[in-house]
Amino acid sequence: MTGRLIIPASLVLCSLLVFEVSRLETSAAPDIAAYVRANQHAIVSELTAFLSIPNVSSDLPNVQKNARHLRRLMERRGIQTQILEEGTAPLIYGELTAPGASQTLLFYCHYDGEPVEPAQWVGHEPFEPVLRDGPLSRGGAIIPFPNEETPYDDDWRIYARSASDDKAPIIALLAALDAMQESGISPDYHLKFLFEGEEEAGSPHLAEFLGKYRDLLGADLVIFADGPVYQTGDPTLYFGVRGIAKLEVTVYGPVRHLHSGHYGNWAPNPAMQLSQLLASMKDRDGRVLIEGFYEDVRPLTEEERKALEGAPAIEASLKQDLALGWTEGNNRGLPELLTLPSLNVHGMESAWVGDQSRTIVPAEATASIDLRLVPEIDPVRQQERVVAHIRRQGFHVVAEVPSLELRRRHEKVARVVRHYGYPALRTPMELPLARRLAGAVERAGSRVVKLPTMGGSVPLYVFNDQLGVPVIGLPTVNPDNNQHSPNENIRLGHFFRAIEIFAEVFRM
Amino acid sequence: MTGRLIIPASLVLCSLLVFEVSRLETSAAPDIAAYVRANQHAIVSELTAFLSIPNVSSDLPNVQKNARHLRRLMERRGIQTQILEEGTAPLIYGELTAPGASQTLLFYCHYDGEPVEPAQWVGHEPFEPVLRDGPLSRGGAIIPFPNEETPYDDDWRIYARSASDDKAPIIALLAALDAMQESGISPDYHLKFLFEGEEEAGSPHLAEFLGKYRDLLGADLVIFADGPVYQTGDPTLYFGVRGIAKLEVTVYGPVRHLHSGHYGNWAPNPAMQLSQLLASMKDRDGRVLIEGFYEDVRPLTEEERKALEGAPAIEASLKQDLALGWTEGNNRGLPELLTLPSLNVHGMESAWVGDQSRTIVPAEATASIDLRLVPEIDPVRQQERVVAHIRRQGFHVVAEVPSLELRRRHEKVARVVRHYGYPALRTPMELPLARRLAGAVERAGSRVVKLPTMGGSVPLYVFNDQLGVPVIGLPTVNPDNNQHSPNENIRLGHFFRAIEIFAEVFRM
Question: Which residues, including other chains, have CB under 8 Å from residue A376's CB and lie 6 or more apart?
Fold first, then answer.
């Protein structure tokens, strides 16, 4: 793996508050549910204690403090732990063998957090967890943590950095172990835990360390316990993620900004050339027109298609929330469209607009493009297709800043800077362990959303690549958790449900 | 006239140094040329003294000091002066009647200057004029002003703010009066002078004052003595300017930036929509595709066509200098293309590119567009044509920021903010006074460039509108004078030639 992993896409910009998060009805094994009910206060205390330790990725001393704390929590459950790497943010490994088990589940979480902007946190510091009687966005007020006699309400929320991303799932995993022990139930799998401390810094060493500890980390399934559940708030499984590759395209006009009156319809305008180039890439329904763009797409399996059909429709609510009068793809559903590769212009710039604008022919124009990938599409090959398309539009394509001599020699010149990214991953829903996992989550939830792929990109492929193990995403936190933003929170109903889900998974 | 005039376009971004400015051979009347040669030192001293008074538009006390100084220079020549307006930067009027003359020429110049950035001036302060033995850009060094025995070289230059824009033409006009008086020649016209002190501030009151002093300012021809000569350095006349109107178009995606993975080929992308919209406006040769865009263009007269054919070809040198491998308009010449209306995207923005870029579906995208106008095209009507085109592309067009409700109701929404601008002006070359003016400039120059129109926009129409007088532009300063930039300069050959040109014009 070259370069850093990017920040998992599932964790960015997901703070949609579209749906009334459904009040989950407990349907898991009564023993676990009863344990959670009876031990709410201790479990929440364990979470808030963990949230009180600042964990911004770049703050190594505190990240190490988190690691020491977490390691103690793990060992208290009889998990055998090792710090695999200490020079960087500690990579914590834990193992709990199950007598008689033949298969192994590896759970991945991260205990570091995004940077904080304390001024934007309402009513408290990011590392001073508070309880609110509802979401801040709907006027939820800070209330005292209740005494042992008062039960927690599912709609109450803990506000603190990393409440959802990703400390709550860690505490839920540990609480699930307690619940099983208390209920006298043994896991049916050997359990392994890998807790990373630099995920929000882009997981710069994860691929390397996975390769290095390949033998130690051997498992039958990696469960990626990070990210929010589906927009409806229902328990969710995603069997894949889209890959990503990026391109930045700069096209050139005159060597310096020119007066648009004096040179206005003579000097080529790079903003117009870029517009014409980008417009040639997609039709007005959003279908990509680049040759071969959809060529390698692996057809959906019957099970994937059924899962898509089963996903609750969210488009109407999303359109309302996002103020959209139209969507790409001829009214096809969002989950289905996410099984296709995409081309997205995520930034565009040429000279100035608004108050800063000047009546010039700009010297250059740039667009940043991301390509989302689905299985069988090679990131480099997909980039090549875009570059070939740019060439077919009459551009001489270069990788470096073109010399003036080169610009004089060619009618149109485009500089394309490629950012590699990484491929998609999709684990077949037909895998026996995948089916069992779905069954376990279903037992813990009234309705489970199974997505063949998440739209965003997370480098899950490294687990597959380095360990040769299939990966499935099991998010548990509420979708409106403000992750990566001020006022991050976890809805307690989702937190408690996560414990029940994990307990089901341990014995699935 | 509503709103402020914009900064005359002729004066912005013209600092091309493409051509070896031609060394002008003196061919004017020997008496004037001899006077200039004999009085070089006094004339240059008068210019440098004027340049030593700071004249940044916004610095009213110093602008007033310039006005007092200039008024004294005018009165020394027997010009009857008045300060027409004093509350603002003084508007100076001067009048010199010619016995037996029946027609009147009104000369317009401005004595204020652009702001300065002293740190970027090489070797001296902007208001401490220095002499260089060549252009700074080619290593010209500061040399002492010579004593009376040493003549000035035509290629030497004075460096100071306003050296070219627009103090040298003012001093040249006054020196031309001296030269005629010394040679015993009388002007054949009543001469009027209007010297503005807030041109670089956008001439906020000019239209109003022209209307107010309409009777006083009555003339047969306005000579606009500002701006640089043609890129070849040859004496130049422009009989018109393009008008201008601007539009800013914003198109909308989701109400907030969305994760491009999770919503990537479902949420409409405004950068792509804007690209498609802009691309629909021009073909790949640069011809505007908007209905009616060229409809009102007044055909060129025979004389205008001949003038275009006579303009020296500069395209090859410009392409070399500007690093262009191609130009719009199917290889038609620059001066010819400037007789057509244009549509130019002068700025474009959506989210971020480069290091700042994030993989999002942007919430909106904006393009700033300028329309250059030629005679008979109404600015508002041309804007309307663009708006109608945007509607035909499927956009619901609004003037204000659209409400979320409105965005939900329409598939595509564009906000179009219109900036009015002003119409073009073109004075017929066939006018007797126009012909005489061309003859006069020709007598003073070995080669004269006559342009039916300048490409840029200057609100010359206000003279025509308010005074009912035709206007012709008579620039005299070198094209590489760095006007509006640090290290502004005047080439002395052009300065001395300006005196001869004006003397010819006074008796044309």
Answer: A296, A297, A298
Interchain contact A334–B (C-beta under 8 A):
yes
Q: What is the dihedral of CA B173, B179, B184, B190, to 10 degrees?
A: 0
Instruction: Give the single-character DSSP code of A52.
Output: T
For residues A385 and A429, membership in a common domain is answered with no
Judged by CB atoms closer than 8 Å, whether chains meet at A324 and B259 is answered as no
Q: Does A49 touch chain B (CB under 8 A)?
A: no
Per-residue pLDDT, A331 = 85
Which range marks the domain in which residue A496 is found? 9-241+425-506
- The answer to whether B504 touches B476, Cβ cutoff 8 Å, is no
Mean pLDDT, rounded, for B180-207:
94
Name the more confident of B88 and A70: A70
Mutate to test the interface with B, among A15, A257, A344, A403 (most CBs of B within 10 A): A344
Residue at which a domain ends, from A373, A407, A422: A422
8 Å CB contact between A278 and A367: yes
B120 plus B36 within the same structural domain:
yes
A390: in domain: yes
Q: Are B255 and B171 in the same domain?
A: no
Interface with chain B: mutation pick from A230, A238, A322, highest number of B CBs within 10 Å: A322
pLDDT averaged over every residue in chain A:
92
Question: Using one digit for the tens of pLDDT, what is the confidence trace for B129-153?
Answer: 999 999 999 999 999 999 999 999 9
Q: Chain A: nearest CA to B135, how far in angstroms?
A: 20
Q: Cβ(A163)–Cβ(A490) under 8 Å?
A: yes
pLDDT at A10 over 60: no
Sign for the pseudo-dihedral over CA of B286, B287, B293, B299 = positive
Question: What are A374-384's pLDDT values in tens digits?
Answer: 999 999 999 99
> Do B271 and A244 count as a contact with CB atoms less than 8 A apart?
no
Q: Among A373, A394, A422, identify where a domain stops.
A: A422
B86/B154 same-domain check: yes
Q: B351 vs A352: CB contact, 8 Å cut-off?
A: no
Q: Count Cβ–Cβ pairs < 8 Å, chain A vs chain B.
A: 339
Please provide residue A440's backbone torsions phi and psi, each rounded to the nearest 5 degrees.
-65, -45
Q: Which chain A residues contact residue B14 at CB under 8 A? A: 259, 262
CB contact under 8 A, A324 and B407: yes
- pLDDT above 60 (res A7): no
Judging contacts by C-beta atoms under 8 Å, the chain A residues touching residue B279 are 272, 275-276, 278-280
* Residue B298 or A459, more confident: B298
d(CA B361, nearest CA chain A) in Å: 6
Residue A150: how many other CB atoms lie within 10 Å: 11
The fraction of chain A above a pLDDT of 90, given in percent, is 86
Q: Are residues B404 and B462 in the same domain?
A: no
pTM greater than 0.90? no
B69 inside 8 A of chain A by CB: no
Burial of A489 (0-12, 13-18, 19+ CB in 10 A): buried
Query: Which of B484, B118, B152, B55 has its CA nearest to residue A360?
Result: B484
Beta strands A221-224 and A104-110: pairing type? parallel
Q: pLDDT value at position A358?
A: 87
Total number of domains constituting chain B: 2
Look at B13 and A258 and tell me if their CB atoms are within 8 Å: yes
Residues A278 and A345 in one domain: yes
Residue A271, domain member (yes or no):
yes
- pLDDT (tens digit per residue) in A402-435: 999 999 999 999 999 999 789 999 999 999 999 9
Amino acid A267: pLDDT: 96
Q: What is the pLDDT of residue A12?
A: 38
Categorize the per-residue pLDDT at B29 as very low, low, confident or very high, splitting at 50, 70 and 90. Answer: low
- Contact A15/B at CB under 8 A: no
Q: Which positions 431-470 of B are in contact with A (Cβ < 8 Å)?
A: 454-457
Option in B328, B350, B358 nearest A348 (CB): B350
B407 domain-assigned: yes
